[in-house]
Amino acid sequence: MTILSFEKITLTKSGKALLKGIDWQINSGEDWGILGLNGAGKTLMLQMIAGNLWPTSGRLTVLGEVFGQTNIPDLTKRIGWVSSVLQSKFYQSDTAETIVLSGKFASIGIWRTYEPEELTAAKELLISLGAESLLGKTYQVLSQGEKQIVLIARALMAKPELLILDEPCNGLDLFAREDLLQRIRQIKEQPDAPTVLFVTHHTEEILPFISHVLMIKDGEIFRQGTREELMTPKTLSDFYEKPIRIRSYSAERFLVYPGDL
Fold first, then answer.
1. CB count, 10 Å around CB of 173?
2. Taking 80 as the threshold, does the pLDDT of residue 114 lie above it?
3. CA–CA separation, 85 and 170 (whole Å)
């Protein structure tokens, strides 16, 4: 099954090409990392996948649904999205479990009647992620790392087929980052785990389960392929246009840093 397909996707705004002829496909059984510097076009692509932005030309297919021939609100319920863009949208007085529950309805806040067992399921999801201590706490008192855990639980609430993690470790200290990455790894160990699309600036955050990598630069695909093919000094030096070195960070993870250090 094809999870995602960009076919010659372009995006133009005010006469400027922001995305240029993107051809990219994710197949069932694959998990992808996206690498790109600021302004490369990563967020634009994610906004398209989430149905918030429409391509100027080309054919976009997500979870078997072709844009222009499907109901976007129904499609977005099949996609879990974790992004710092969402963090500012939630009500500060809502509890962690209420925010998680809102993921079932793809809403900010809860505007419909829900069953007690649905709230129980939201609590159990937090507990399964090792976040039982967050139950009953309001959003405003949560740390950055705790908010990210709540957003991941919220994204999982509707049992998505595709989970987009848009720089989930942004703003976290070293220990909070490693804790969050461990929880993401545990999600992928579940038998019904969704396909993961992980966006980051940092190669050491690319976990071992990530099978493929997309490199995007200036609105175009620079390289795409398996993790083993692309995560090499030559390819990364060409991508960053500067010499780099690779150092082991932990088992099956590595750190890229400037070659002149």
1. 12
2. no
3. 11
Read off the tokens for 106: 């793809």
Residues 51, 26: contact at Cβ < 8 Å?
Answer: no
CB-based contacts of 15, cutoff 8 Å, min separation 6: none
Predicted local confidence at residue 261, as pLDDT: 59
Could you read off the pLDDT of 241-259 as tens digits, one per residue?
888 888 877 777 888 878 7
pLDDT in tens, 68-104: 888 888 888 899 988 877 777 788 889 999 999 988 8
Rounded CA-CA distance 22/19 in Å is: 7
| Burial degree of 247 (CB within 10 A; 0-12, 13-18, 19+) | exposed
Using left for φ > 0, alpha for ψ between -120 and 50, and beta otherwise, residue 86 falls in alpha
Q: What are phi and psi of 146, to 5 degrees?
A: -65, -40
* Backbone φ, ψ for residue 75 (5° rounding): -65, -40
Mean pLDDT of the chain, nearest integer: 89
Residue type, 120: T
d(CA 83, CA 163): 11
Q: What pTM did the predictor assign?
A: 0.90
Report d(CA 108, CA 46) in Å as an integer. 19
